[in-house]
Every structure is written in C-alpha cells, then in structure tokens.
From TrEMBL:
<dbReference type="InterPro" id="IPR050526">
    <property type="entry name" value="Rubredoxin_ET"/>
</dbReference>
<keyword id="KW-0408">Iron</keyword>
<keyword id="KW-0479">Metal-binding</keyword>
<feature type="domain" description="Rubredoxin-like">
    <location>
        <begin position="7"/>
        <end position="58"/>
    </location>
</feature>
<comment type="similarity">
    <text>Belongs to the rubredoxin family.</text>
</comment>
<dbReference type="InterPro" id="IPR018527">
    <property type="entry name" value="Rubredoxin_Fe_BS"/>
</dbReference>
<keyword id="KW-0813">Transport</keyword>
<protein>
    <recommendedName>
        <fullName>Rubredoxin</fullName>
    </recommendedName>
</protein>
<dbReference type="InterPro" id="IPR024935">
    <property type="entry name" value="Rubredoxin_dom"/>
</dbReference>
<dbReference type="InterPro" id="IPR024934">
    <property type="entry name" value="Rubredoxin-like_dom"/>
</dbReference>
<keyword id="KW-0249">Electron transport</keyword>
<dbReference type="Pfam" id="PF00301">
    <property type="entry name" value="Rubredoxin"/>
</dbReference>
<comment type="function">
    <text>Involved in the hydrocarbon hydroxylating system, which transfers electrons from NADH to rubredoxin reductase and then through rubredoxin to alkane 1 monooxygenase.</text>
</comment>
Amino acid sequence: MNNTPGQRTWMCLLCGWVYYETLGLPDEGIPPGTPWENIPNTWQCPTCGATKEDFTMEQL
C-alpha cells in the first residue's frame, strides 16, 4: 500500500468512483499530485455527489 501523499487513491464508498492523487482532477482545478487533504471539504464526488467523508483510502 502506498501511503505517500500525492500518490494515494481514494474510493467513494457510495458509487466506487476513484480519485487518484497522481492524476488530480484538472477539469475541476485540482492539479496532478494534489493530496486528498488539500482538496476542499466542500468538494463532492463527480459521479454521485458524495462528500469527502464518504471516501476511503484504497489498499493497493
């Protein structure tokens, strides 16, 4: 498992969408390498609208 900030993955527990820190979300203004902690708390899952509280770090 990679616990290095900027290289982790986070999965939405509601729909299964995955945020890859290495890729970021450039279309939403989140550059590649952005750690999960640096994403605004108001951000929502682009697929289902879940909040950050509904995500868990994936075990790779």
